[in-house]
Amino acid sequence: MSDTELMNKYTIPNTDLEVSRIAFGTWHLGGSWDSTPLSAALKTRAVNLLNEAVDQGITHIDLADIYTRGKSDEAIGHALAQSPGLRDKLVLQEKSGIVLNNEPNAGDPPRYDFSYDNIVGKVERSLRRLGTDRLDLLALHRPDPLVEYEEVARAIDHLHQSGKVRYFGVSNHNWAQIDLLKQFVDQPLVVNQVELNLLHHHLIANGILVNQTGGDYDRTIGTMEYCRAHDIMIQAWSPVAGGRLFKQEETTPENEQSVARLLIEMADKHATTPEAIAVAWLLRHPAKIQPIIGTRTVSRIGRTVAADTVTLSRIEWYALLAAARGAGVP
């Protein structure tokens, strides 16, 4: 494998973790979301994808215990086993707290569960699937309305003191939820992973809509600023909106078609790819956002991580935002 210094790095605040500016996500890595065993073909694909990610300079791998019902963990565990020593060169980040339907019994509903037993049990199962003795990061996946914060604190204390998890964070939390959780846990919360892209830009755009009416912005107001003020890294999941950014079909909304056209124009100007421009839009933000790219195609990794070499101008950045919003700044 090539030198992992190919990509610029971030140091996650309040940790000793130096990570690649772009991370690799594993959402669909295990194939189907059912009990079908992980096939040899899926194991081979996982090896190829992980190797390509590392060759492109990625050192940060994002997982979740629910991804393909645990098989994504298993796929990465298989890939790591093929390259002795690779695990120690990577930062493994797991998310936990969601329980899927029919678990543990048929007919059980999907739900969130931040209980001590669920958090600790899920981490221990992920460690076994990954074939490692520790996670570098654990993020609470989605807010649980029935959370007992003392239980979360007890789970985090146990996982930290036992060496099973080094650092902690959250995912899909707003600033008030983070602020409340911080009152109970002793460990710093160092990441907040949220959906963020040109078509889901609320976390960024609400900052220019202060005192404006309309828009679905109220649930995220202040979260970007809070995370920046408290040294919490913002991670962006779905940074290319699941491919929607590149569609120009008749049924595609006009603002999305406008974004797609601009991405192509800017890619030509910068001698790169539309995927790279879309991710570079996030990287241009001064908050040092870390996009998490996810793909099942090896070639798309290089097309996307090329964003690390692109710096958009202020004019280009605002042009993309205006196209995505279907309106200029107020």
Descriptive account of the structure:
With 330 residues, the protein is α/β, with parallel strands linked by helices. The protein has a domain at 8-195: TIM Barrel (Alpha-Beta Barrel). The chain is 37% helix and 15% strand. It contains 11 helices and 12 strands. The protein has an 8-stranded parallel beta barrel with strand order 3-4-5-8-9-10-11-12, surrounded by 5 helices. It has a two-stranded antiparallel ribbon with strand order 1-2. Helix 8 packs across helix 9 and helix 9 (274-283) packs across helix 10. It is globular. It starts with 8 loop residues before the first strand and ends in a 5-residue tail after the last helix. The mean pLDDT is 93.
Break the fold down into its secondary structure elements and pairings.
Blueprint: E1 9-11, E2 18-20, E3 23-25, H1 40-55, E4 60-62, H2 71-81, E5 91-96, E6 98-99, E7 111-112, H3 116-130, E8 135-140, H4 149-161, E9 165-171, H5 175-182, E10 189-195, H6 202-205, H7 223-229, E11 233-237, H8 254-270, H9 274-283, E12 290-293, H10 298-305, H11 314-325
Parallel strand pairs: 3-4, 3-12, 4-5, 5-8, 8-9, 9-10, 10-11, 11-12
Antiparallel strand pairs: 1-2, 6-7
Summarize the structure.
This protein is α/β, with parallel strands linked by helices and 330 residues long. The chain is built from eleven helices and twelve strands. The model has no long low-confidence stretch (mean pLDDT 93).
